[in-house]
Design a protein that fits this description.
Length: about 240
């Protein structure tokens, strides 16, 4: 699945979906979808579907070795721990308070959260355990794919900001395209490890890659996203 255009929608207005059959084959099918509000396209995506087929061609990377989610602080507790530290710089405190005020329908547990000193020089990499809040059930795999699509967008593009956040703040950031490949069945209401990295950024754009791993080590989903990121320098506080 590849999303090519993503604009802000209006939750008070119905969405009109236009679906075009690009290809319908015995094994693979492709559909183009355009979502329209107020006469304008707010979302365009191309979705590919495949009939399940056995194949001897199978391999995958190995899942990173990380602590289990039960041994880690949840996102709220981790933010509270940062905010209680009197040495936390004001620029981080403002951002963390903003994050803490958001209601997010997913649970998050950061792997190897950085210390205050490490915040000044982070690599463009991060990992966290994620799952939907509440119970979804086995049900239709399509529902779990929809939830995974939401999960995949959380803090994903922000991976490209990590090495720069001590000197710059975001002036504007938006997705240009977002692709997902679904490899194996999974439960979005079970813990999955989200491994994110940004191999490149430049020209006011950032590229990020991501992998969603099941707890049993199976690679369930691969993601890629490019976005526009415009920064402005952090304003130094006067010492006068």
């Amino acid at each position: 699945m590849q999303a090519l255009l993503q604009l802000e929608g209006d939750p008070k207005v119905p969405v009109l979906y236009h679906v075009e059959r690009i290809r319908t084959g015995a094994s693979f099918s492709v559909r183009a979808v355009k979502a329209v509000q107020h006469g304008k396209a707010i979302f365009i995506c191309q979705a590919s579907f495949q009939q399940m087929q056995p194949s001897p061609l199978q391999h995958q990377f190995s899942m990173p070795s990380v602590p289990p989610p039960e041994d880690l602080l949840d996102h709220e507790a981790l933010i509270d721990q940062y905010l209680r530290d009197p040495n936390l710089h004001k620029k981080y405190r403002v951002g963390l308070n903003r994050v803490a005020a958001q209601e997010v329908p997913i649970e998050i547990k950061v792997v190897n959260p950085p210390t205050l000193t490490q915040l000044q020089a982070l690599e463009p990499k991060q990992m966290f355990w994620v799952r939907a809040r509440g119970y979804i059930g086995e049900g239709d795999i399509k529902m779990h794919c929809c939830v995974a699509a939401y999960i995949s967008d959380y803090a994903f593009l922000g991976t490209a900001l990590l090495p720069h956040q001590s000197k710059y703040k975001v002036n504007f950031m938006a997705s240009l395209d977002h692709s997902m490949w679904f490899h194996a069945p999974f439960r979005a209401d079970h813990w999955m490890l989200y491994e994110c990295e940004s191999p490149w950024a430049g020209g006011s754009r950032g590229l990020v890659h991501g992998r969603l791993w099941r707890r049993d080590g199976v690679l369930a989903v691969t993601c890629a996203q490019e976005g526009v990121i415009r920064l402005k320098p952090q304003v130094s506080e006067s010492k006068l």
